[in-house]
């Protein structure tokens, strides 16, 4: 979808922006979930706290 919007970027910028934001939000949320899981499940980090 991002690639399809490349042809219309001047007149309809949202065609690429909205899917791009969705991909960005997905990546950030997966990263935050992975950090949370590491903090909760890593026994070495639990001993420090």
Give me some keywords for this one.
single chain, 49 residues, mainly alpha, rod-shaped
From the alpha carbons, calculate the radius of gyration and give it in angstroms: 18 Å
* Strand elements, count: 0
Low-confidence region ranges: none
Largest sheet: none
Distance between the termini: 44 Å
Number of domains: 1
- β-sheet strand percentage: under 5%
What is the arithmetic mean of pLDDT? 86
Structural class: mainly alpha
Range of helix content: 55-70%
Give, in order, the helices and strands. Answer: HH
Shape: rod-shaped
Total number of helices = 2
3D architecture notes:
This protein has two helices and no strands. By secondary structure, it is mainly α. The protein is rod-shaped and about 55 Å long. The model has no long low-confidence stretch (mean pLDDT 86).
In short:
This protein has two helices and no strands. It has helices at about 15-40, 45-49.
């Amino acid at each position: 979808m991002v690639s399809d919007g490349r042809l219309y970027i001047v007149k309809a910028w949202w065609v690429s922006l909205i899917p791009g934001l969705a991909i960005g939000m997905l990546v950030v949320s997966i990263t935050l979930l992975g950090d949370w899981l590491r903090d909760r499940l890593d026994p070495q980090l639990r001993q420090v706290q």
